[in-house]
Design brief:
The protein is of the alpha/beta class. It has 2 domains: 224 residues, Alpha-Beta Complex (Spore Coat Polysaccharide Biosynthesis Protein SpsA, Chain A), CATH 3.90.550; 66 residues, UDP N-Acetylglucosamine Acyltransferase, domain 1 (3 Solenoid). 25% of the residues lie in helices and 28% in strands. It contains 9 helices and 24 strands. It has a 7-stranded mixed sheet with strand order 7-6-1-8-12-9-13. The chain has a 4-stranded parallel sheet with strand order 14-17-20-23, with helices on one face. Helix 2 links the parallel strand 6 and strand 7. It is elongated, with a radius of gyration of 21 Å. The N and C termini lie far apart (49 Å).
Length: 322
């Protein structure tokens, strides 16, 4: 694989299980749309906007309003599966001779560090396809199972709806994050059929095809199995807000010297800055755009959005918006 990498983000589709007219990938978590978490991770690992193709359906206009026009866009007119979505980006990738990173747009847990691990293994192993898998300690979510041979090599990815009872007991699942050697893999996409329960063209089927062609397939096991979890309903949104909020608060406490009392009652959105030695009291909501100085006391019962708080200020039982 040559050095340059392009990314394709599969983002077509509405939020049918969320009972919403808004595109699934545009639902906010801590004040930031789901797809923007993913796009930020791509930028952080060195893939610029002009090398990122977003595959959208009739939701292109609302996605473009949210993320800006610096990205390339492709249209998937019908939701016929992930392989069909990738082929919809043919105009941008058919002749590309580098690596193609393919992800789904509804995953806020993707991190730049995991993407770098994927890229590193792909290059070291000179693979034609490397993808991220996740091993769950208990029953896994209803995603594709990784079927391996006796030597640990990947034979196939089998979607849960098409899996046998024995395959459903496999706890290693597909995270839907792939890195392909595009010149080798793109011509094979046309071989993917739709003989499955959902009658869709699954990108996961490319693994078995690559094996039949004696091409190299590798995996990277995720350090955190959350990376395999997409956001499908309001419950998933709530869980993601709690998990990502806890991670953000831990960074503030460990790296920025902020004290957060009863963190389970505090919400801090993305794009919030808090100075060293400030204390956040319970029942406080700090929304995006807020800037708090050093040695402040914020809360209890405070709501701030796009607000500016000077050093040494004490603020409680208050609402302030910029």
């Amino acid at each position: 694989m040559k050095g340059r990498i392009k990314a394709v983000v599969l983002a077509a589709g509405k939020s049918t299980r969320m009972k919403s007219e808004r595109s699934k990938v545009l639902h906010p978590i801590l004040g930031k749309e789901i797809i923007r978490y993913l796009l930020d991770a791509l930028r952080e690992c060195g893939i610029p906007e002009q090398d990122t193709i977003v595959v959208a359906g009739d939701n292109r206009a609302e996605i473009e309003r949210a993320i800006g026009g610096g990205f390339r866009f492709a249209c998937q007119p019908e939701a016929l599966g992930t392989a069909h979505a990738l082929r919809s980006a043919s105009e941008w990738i058919a002749g590309f001779d580098g690596g193609l990173l393919v992800l789904v747009g509804d995953n806020p847990y993707v991190s730049a560090s995991e993407l770098r691990r994927l890229i590193d293994r792909h290059r070291r192993k000179r693979a034609h396809c490397t993808f991220i898998s996740a091993v769950f300690p208990g029953d896994p979510p209803p995603y594709g199972r990784i079927v391996r041979d006796a030597w640990g090599g990947v034979q196939a990815i089998v979607e849960e709806k098409d899996a046998t009872p024995e395959q459903r007991r496999i706890r290693e699942v597909n995270a839907s994050i792939y890195l392909f050697d595009n010149p080798a893999v793109f011509p094979l996409l046309s071989r993917i059929g739709n003989r499955n329960v959902k009658k869709e063209y699954y990108l996961t089927d490319i693994v078995a095809i690559l094996n039949r062609e004696n091409l190299v397939v590798e995996t990277v096991q995720a350090e955190d199995c959350d990376i395999a979890i997409g956001i499908n309903d309001r419950r998933d949104l709530q869980v993601a807000q709690r998990k990502l909020g806890l991670r953000l608060q831990q960074r503030l406490m460990l790296e920025a010297g902020v004290t957060i009392l009863q963190p389970e009652t505090v919400t801090i959105e993305h794009d919030v800055e808090i100075g060293r030695d400030s204390v956040i009291y319970p029942c406080t909501y700090l929304a995006a755009g807020t800037r708090i100085g050093r040695n402040c006391v914020i809360g209890p019962f405070v709501f701030l959005k796009n607000a500016r708080v000077a050093d040494d200020e004490v603020l409680n039982f208050a609402k302030r918006t910029g």
